[in-house]
Amino acid sequence: MVFSIYYLGGALALLLVSSIRQVNEYQRGVKFTLGKYSGIMSPGWRLVIPVFQSYQKIDLRVKTVDVPGQDCVSKDNISLKVNAVLYYKVNKPDKAVLEVEDFDFAVSQLAQTTMRNIIGEFELDDILSKRETINTKIQSIVDKETDVWGIKVTNIEVKDIELPENMKRALAAQAEAERDRRAKITSASGEKEAAKSFLEAAQLMSKNPSTLQLRLLHTLQEISAEKNSTIILPIPIELMEFFGNRKK
Fold first, then answer.
1. What does the mean pLDDT of the chain come to?
2. Where is the domain boundary, 112, 139, 168?
3. What are the φ and ψ backbone dihedral angles of 208, each rounded to 5 degrees?
4. Pairwise CA distance, residues 160 & 59, whole Å
């Protein structure tokens, strides 16, 4: 009789020890009793009776999903390859278990499909220049679709856009032409400003002819600094006529 009590007590102790499950702070446990959902297990040590009960741990931390490169076609019919990174977390563990079989795989597939669809709504120039708009639109759609699974999409970023070689060459030529255009505009603007300055200087000098002589002397001084320079002085025709008249 005493042996039976000890045996029963040992069996109960063993059953109790084997029923203890630990749920970490960043986790929640979805508990089932006889196959039916029976609640959320909060962090700490919790009892799960073998055979009758089971549970599934769900990590509540933010997860990073690498969305592999997708072959997309832009609105202006240009083929390109786009990849992205997705950040999400589980807000409602019970829905993440009860509403979808594998929420990690489901979120990844939904992000890929949505990214291809959204890229197809933009032209190439907008895809390259409006990444924030594209990111926000993809995030909004994926977050809305995954809300029924108890998942919150916190962010999505388009990482890389790979273009065909012919498009890379075309964009490079376009960028070079744009740089040449800006350089010509800058040069023309400089010429315009210089012409205005020369005009103002000419107007000032015309009011006092002696300034022309001073400017000539200053120019000769600058030229004389070069030892190998040849200086040609212009002689007014009036001066030649004056000396000619004196000889007569």
1. 81
2. 168
3. -140, 95
4. 29
Residue position matching structure tokens 């055979």: 51
DSSP string, 174-225: HHHHHHHHHHHHHHHHHHHHHHHHHHHHHHHHHH-THHHHHHHHHHHHHHHT
Name the domain count of the chain.
2
Q: Which helix (H) or strand (E) holds 83?
A: strand 79-90
The phi, psi pair for 201, rounded to 5°, reads -65, -40
Cα separation values, 100 from 41, 56, 93, 138, 196, Å? 19, 14, 11, 21, 74
* CATH number, residue 161: 3.30.479.30
SS3 1: coil
What is the Cα–Cα distance from 128 to 138, expressed in whole angstroms? 15
72 with 158, same domain: the answer is yes
Enclosing domain of residue 144:
63-168
26 assigned to some structural domain: yes
Question: Whole-prediction pTM value?
Answer: 0.65
Question: Could you tell me which of 185, 189, 221, 218 has the C-alpha nearest to residue 201?
Answer: 218
pLDDT digits (tens, 9 = 90+) for 202-217: 677 666 666 666 666 6
The single-letter code of the amino acid at 108 is: S
With tokens 């108890």, the residue in question is 150
**φ, ψ (nearest 5 deg) of residue 90:** -90, 120
